[in-house]
Amino acid sequence: MEYFVLRNHSLQRFHTFRLDVIADTIVLPITKKGMVAALRDFHDKRIVVIGNGSNMIFSQSNYDSNTVFMVTTMVDKIEITDNILYVQNGVTMNKLAWFTCENSIDGYAFCEDIPGTLGGALMMNAGQWQYTIGQYVKWIEVFDKDTLQTKTIIPDADFFRYRHSKLNDMNVIVLSIGLKIEPGEYMEILDLMLEYRRERYVKQPRQYPNGGSTFKRPKDKNGDWLFIWKLFDEVGLRGFQIGDAQVSQKHPGFIVNRGNAKVAEVQMVIAECKKRVKEKFDVDIELEWRVI
Ligand SMILES: Cc1cc2nc3c(=O)[nH]c(=O)nc-3n(C[C@H](O)[C@H](O)[C@H](O)COP(=O)(O)OP(=O)(O)OC[C@H]3O[C@@H](n4cnc5c(N)ncnc54)[C@H](O)[C@@H]3O)c2cc1C
After folding, report:
1. Which of 95, 93, 106 is nearest to 192 (CA)?
2. Which one is catalytic: 213, 248, 265, 276?
3. Which residue puts its alpha carbon closest to atom 50 of ligand 1?
4. What is the pLDDT of residue 83?
5. For the residues 234-263, what does the mean pLDDT come to?
6. Domains, the chain, ranges and CATH?
7. What pTM was computed for the model?
8. What residue's CA is closest to ligand 1, atom 31?
9. Cα distances (Å, whole numbers) of residue 179 to 100, 154, 195, 197, 229
10. What is the pLDDT of residues 205-244, one digit of tens each?
């Protein structure tokens, strides 16, 4: 068997915000070949690919058989071939960081604490500080949903931008990626990874399920970047809660699930955040999360 199918099953364990949302069909490919087979078998449905579900939120409590969720975390081969790092789309950023550290490959320490897969990371051009995954990509193997065939894309200079890649304008699913290899020092990479993790843990509300930063950083009328947490503090949003959906006390840039949050509660909290910031600062804030 190349892939499993779960019927009428909760998506709770397949995304980091942990909403108890029911899907008629969840497909779990075991291999890349299985993923391609499943993409062909279900091509007449709306396919939603879930990597680690760390940058998505659901807009419904139930999804019928017209939507097929494909969870990719078992498609996770990683190896070095011909001086290229070959990584399948379901490999987590954490696994990539540790693999490169163990093989003294430089550049990927920033990935250690980003809780997504490479597939999701390429769609979002995930990163932190000056590092983004797009900087390291040599080629991308994709499944083309129009032709139902696979093909290879070589990214051009402006393929990746801040939290965006041109993959979003194409009707494709990421299968595997070729990444650059630069030699590095094991101990230096290890120290960096641990330092990054510590820095992020002390700031972020990791004790509750969440989906990372909820909103993109907005700009003011002069084009200067603003901090979401500062805006939220000025309008009293820190700790604002409806049901179990809460603007984090620790870091208001995150909405967290205090237990059993419902889709509607998350939506109401998001709406209140947008409304208060618009009223006070005349700034429109946009979700960073993908809404499914
Ligand atoms: C605690 C926490 C901290 C975070 N910190 C950061 C950070 O520092 N920097 C940062 O950039 N992000 C951060 N994020 C957000 C998130 O981890 C990244 O955006 C990550 O790259 C998303 O990967 P994913 O596999 O979870 O994607 P998902 O949430 O599963 O999917 C995101 C989008 O990509 C699509 N997708 C997934 N896989 C594929 C594929 N194979 N082919 C085509 N489309 C696909 C999905 O359909 C969806 O539209 C954080 C999140 C959390 C919860």
Report:
1. 106
2. 213
3. 212
4. 92
5. 96
6. 3-71 (3.30.43.10), 78-202 (3.30.465.10), 228-291 (3.90.78.10)
7. 0.95
8. 120
9. 11, 11, 24, 23, 34
10. 999 999 999 999 998 888 899 999 999 999 999 999 999 9
